[in-house]
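Notebook B, p. 112. Complex prediction, attempt 2.
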Amino acid sequence: MNGVLSISTVLNFGSAGLIVLGLYIVFTQKNLIKMVIGIDIAETGVNVLLVSTGYIKGNTAPIFSKAGLQVSSMVDPVPQALVLTSIVIGFGVSALALAMIIKLYEKTGTLDTSKIRGLKW
Amino acid sequence: MVNPILLIIVPLGTAFLISLTASFLKNSTKYLALLAMIANVWVSIKLLPEVMQHSINVVIAGVKPPLGINLFVGPSGAVFSILISAAGLLILLYSFKYIEGDSQHKYYTLFLLLITGSHGMVLTGDVFNLFVFFEILAISSYILVGYEGKRNGLEAAVKYLILGSIGSVLILVAVALIYQEAGTLNMADLADKFGMIDPSKRLMILVFFITGMGVEAAVFPLNSWLPDAHSSAPSSISAMLSGFVIEVALIVIVKFVYSIFAMTEILGFLSLVAVITLLVGEFAAFKQANIKRVLAYSSIGQIGLILFAMSLNSTGGINAGLMQIVNHTASKSILFLVAGFLIVRTGSYQISDYRGIAKKMPVSAFFFVIGVLSLLGVPPFFGFFSKLAIIIAALHTGSIFNTVMVFLVLLGTVIESIYFLRIIQVMYNRDGIVDSVKEAPFLPLLAIAAFAVVILAGFLVLPQITGYTGGVASEIVRKMQMAQVF
Amino acid sequence: MSIVLNLLSIALAGVVLNVLFSKSKIVQKYVSLLIFAGLTYFSFVMYSQVGEHFDFPFQIAGQSIGFTITWLNYYFGIMITGITLLTVIFSLKYMEGKDGSTHYYTVLSLKTFGMLGVIFSSDLITFFVFWEIMSWSTFGLMSTGGKDAPKSAFKYFVFAITASMILMAGVVLSYSLFGSFDFAVIHDKIGSLSLPMTGFLLSIFIVSFSVESAVFPVHSWLPDGYSNTFTTFTAYLSGISTRIGIYGIILFLFGIFGIQTVDKLSIIGKINFRYVFGVFAALTMVVPTFTALYQHDAKKLIAWHSVGQGGYMLIGLASGSALGIAGGMFHVLNHMAYVVLIVFAIAAVEHRTGTTNLNKLGGLIKKMPVSYLALLFGIIGLAGLPPMNGFVSKWFIYRALILGGYPFLAIAAVIGTLGTILSVYKLIHNMFLGQLPERYNNVKEVGFSMQLPMWILMIVVLGLGIFPGAAMGLIAKIQVALGLTAVPYSLHGIQTASGQLNMLVVSAVFIGGIFVTWIIYLLGSRRKHVSQYNNYAAGNFLDKKVAYNFNYEFYAAMEHVIDPYRKKIIQRTEQGIAGLTDAVSEYIRRIYTGMINTYGIYVITAFIVTIIILKELI
């Protein structure tokens, strides 16, 4: 492709970027909600990475939607199944996190991690 | 033949059943949980002798590996299943009296999910499936840590959740890379193909995986959630988290390093990390005033000890590590469970408030002492034999490095004995300040006593135990092969 | 069934029965009495079974483990059971009405169980297991009795657990070097080990035992620990418990490593392993003995002496000659007899007056004559003067040091004895002589059950002094069994090429001297007995409020001489270590900042560092 980036490279770097960005948010933001957002971004990055592992250029979705489709012309279905699972898990974890943060906010009145340090040392 | 999948299906199904029936069974749902746990113990005990002969491979949904998901039950899976279900059953009995309030069904649902996740992690033969079970385990434990809805519990749960999520991101990256490079997710298949991957990629996969899993396995410095979570959770949950959850994550790491990735060259690094973990845990526990934080930090120390044994690159070392896991499960459960009622009865977490409590709660205090003695490795308790086995295995390697590490481990034990003895001395102080405190109820004491029997009688059945752990150890050091599975 | 198992099961039965009958004090007392009488009987008749071996029906790490009976452990066995029996007889009355008597008898049985197990073990595992039981029960013994007892017991525990861990390292190291735990197997293979490794291994064991036997730099747990507990425990602990450490040293130096191997461990010239060990022993003799001088508590004073006297035993062993080793071993027995006697006398006084504070006692000689006599016998033995037993063993030790060419160590021993004489004078003076405080006017002598053990020990102290051969026979057997040359002995002394000791003559001269003095005394001027206040000093009549004899803060000046150094060196080092541990733990705790962002950074740092390190490794 003489110099032009392939899609999988883009996806790989994109996912790495998302993960790093997400984790960066987790490490630097002191607001718990923002940290959850950071984790979500990182998870999205991983999901992109997962999808990209099964990508085969030019192939179709792994669904026998019309007659005559060959298995060999489909992309790998396994990563897609994995991604679905992972998205569901990620969704669940975010929902749980937000619920717990609300509860915590009720108790402490703050979302600032530097102020929520009742447990230390 | 009993189907090992029952170990996962029974608690999972019961968990849903409890949620469904909660509206009319109310708190009686706990008996459903009890039935599920008894069934689990029964299945796992039935499973063990079969598995010691040859490993069982269970194909799920009719699709054969490497494409389909399978359960691969070797000696390690069976032994850990027994550990999980037996400890789970006893802790469940304890919970009957310990957990109070109206919406107990939530507790038992999550309890069973935690058991499901733990079983799944040790039984599965598929990397992604491992991730899913890991998440089941992690999510249920996040909620359980904050179950009481108190400030500390919630804070710990949120911290645990955030770190756990980082860990699961790392694991998922490892899974994605594995699939990208090896094209398979089946563990046995992966073991066959892993050697062919480019070394730098191999390293990346390994590091992503062990740091991700290390968060749950409480390896320093990934364990910063542990002291908070283990100390703020309800004591029964602390007992589970310390008793087998971190060990399950640890054994997954060990299994991957030895039998799937077969990268034993990193073991030297792991044993160094292990000893650092041990020393950090013991030193951090040294000056704690909160009893559950002491126990939590001591769990870090013990995990360090177990990891040290397991990273000796010998069957003897893994064997010793497994014995130490059994010891830790029993003795740390005793300690957490006793601490639970100490806290309930006195309303305080501070050790100094337990002065003279041994007079009012003699049975609990007695079991506490037994737990401590075994944890410290005082003969003739089971802990002595496991610690002895660890040191023998370490010195048997004959390397100077390991000899130095052994002395550091013994230093850790000295520190550990000092802070535990301090607690015991406070509890047995003659001029007590504790008034009108009742002994813990019978059922919890029975559960604690059962754990105590394990460490007291452990040395009578030592040959049998080492027989099984030896089987596990030789399974772990051997590289997994696809041919084994079929 | 082996007689060792009999012994151990009887001792264990003692523990169980005491726990079961924890409510009934009467049952407890008499059951304990019966148990220890049984133990004493069985241990004395054991001599017919020396050489017997017993293996447990199970194995550890593929090694069979068990017990064996040798002359050495027979010797220690009868000492343990005998002295425990006497302690129990004495305690029957002493412990009446005291808080914690259930605990008392239970832990006493457990401790005896542990000690018997230690001495009869034939392999490192059994040894270690019982050693731990013994240490934990010593901790149990120390932690009751007084207000400060838990604190000092804790101090002991810190020392003991450190020593145990060192011992454990030694046990496993020997296993990995020799492939066996068995003493005999290790003894056979020790020669093939390289000398540095032998030295390292031996040092591990000796250091570990030094803690239990309170050798100089690691002795500081003993005085507080022993003096804060019940006085009878002080007797028991000083008399025999500490000496299990000596047993370990004898066993490893001579029984397992063997004197030939030990002598090969040379450092420079004459400075070899034994010599270094001897220097520590000499320090143990001198420093604690002079510290004992200025103690104002009788129990504490004796506790310091029991550190110091341990130095004599060790220096005898370190001399390496037949005479010195015999002296060291004999001194264990002698020390046990007289120190227990002394502490019993102190306990008797405490039983009647309620205090052991030397500044508050005095003049009890007429009120408690038997206790006085007991204390007198005991301190003569402690000071090492004829005709008591302490003289004989100390004579062996001095002689061995001089003949062996260790003049400095011999001088140290003499200096130590000087300090001993000074301090025991203080003991008897402040308790029994001088002015009787008004409040003790109605004090009576203790009852028969407390007098009996004192009489028995007085006979032993005097008897072994005049007829040392009674014990020397056994010691000679031990020496032969350990591959050493035995000292030629007769009933009343020894007979070697370099000189002889005939205690019959020595005692006759001594007793003759006393007799002559008594005659002169009787022939002297007529005496008149008056009240202690019918007296005057400096031209004034004395009344009840004035203390006219000097027994307050006796030897206080020594305190200013010695204490600063003791505080500077020992206490500061200990405090330093404790402070360091505290500081380290304080800093390490702070890793867990409580801030979730930091925790996340830890994870990612760990990730990166792992990659970097592993990249290098692979």
